[in-house]
Write a structure and sequence with these properties.
Layout lengths: L6 H46 L1 H6 L1 H13 L11 H6 L1 H23 L2 E3 H12 L8 H10 L8 E5 L2 E5 L7 H10 L4 E2 L1 H8 L3 H13 L4 E3 L8 E3 L8 H7 L3
Helix pairs in contact: 5-6, 5-7, 9-10
Length: 253
């Protein structure tokens, strides 16, 4: 018959487990200390890199994006505050806050045309025009970073993807899956009809009209009834940046 371990054996086993636990904790602490030391060294080198390449970071949009990616890998956010070492080194905090203000101006100015939904590429182009600068000196990534700082304003400003496009929303409108599907479909020609929506998604007429009328009510669509076929076109200015040619070639047929 197998004998059960005595009290002394149980105590020895517990003591052994405690020793292994302490060894494991010490190893983990050493690893953590080493990693923190390496990160501190890397951040110091990153600051030195920023000082050395300050001009390139501020003037070159591609270089600026690569710099942000390096910062993200070590947990540094140069835009976390417009005060402190990064603001002093680069001044990019003020740069993005300035972009944010200009983006708000553009979104407000175009809201009557697009209902508060604008293509990111269109916003980028308008922002460059407003700043009187070429497209290469300011990237879409810069726009995204500036928009991220606008979240402090509360609901409204958001970037989301519809098909291959990124759209910027500046009004607190809730779009569901049906609405996003219609916006993606409209990218081909800039507009859709009830019949196209029914055929593409196998929806009932009621469902298609309900989704389209909601988008119309929110100011995201415009209607065009001037066609001989009698079919109403729902145009979407927010996705027509690359569709104008297609729309124009169709004519009033």
């Amino acid at each position: 018959m197998r004998r059960r371990p005595g009290i002394a054996g149980l105590q020895n086993a517990a003591a052994t487990r405690d020793k292994f636990r302490l060894v494991g904790e010490n190893v983990a602490k050493v690893r953590t200390d080493v990693m923190q030391e390496q990160l501190a060294t890397f951040r110091s080198q990153l600051e030195e890199f920023a000082r050395k390449h300050k001009s390139d970071i501020r003037k070159n949009s591609v270089f600026r994006q690569q710099f942000h990616e390096m910062c993200a890998k070590v947990g540094v956010d140069p835009l976390a505050s417009n005060k402190g070492v990064w603001a002093e080194l680069l001044g990019i905090g003020d740069f993005y806050y300035e972009l944010g203000v200009q983006i708000v101006d553009i979104c407000i100015a175009t809201r009557s045309l697009n209902g508060g939904l604008i293509d990111l590429l269109e916003l980028h182009k308008l922002l460059c025009q407003k700043r009187k600068t070429d497209l290469a000196s300011l990237s879409a990534d810069d726009c995204l970073r500036a928009i991220s700082k606008l979240k402090v304003l509360g609901s409204g400003f958001e970037v989301f993807s519809v098909g291959k496009k990124k759209l910027v929303r500046s009004v607190p409108t809730e779009l569901n899956k049906d609405h996003n599907g219609i916006l993606e479909l409209a990218q081909a020609r800039g507009y859709v009809t009830v019949e196209q929506v029914e055929k593409e998604f196998s929806w009932s007429t009621g469902r298609a009209i309900d989704a389209l009328e909601t988008l119309l009510k929110e100011g995201l669509a415009m209607i065009d009834d001037g066609h001989r076929d009698g079919k109403r076109r729902y145009w979407f200015p927010c996705v027509t940046l690359n569709s104008d040619a297609a729309g124009g070639s169709e004519g009033k047929s």
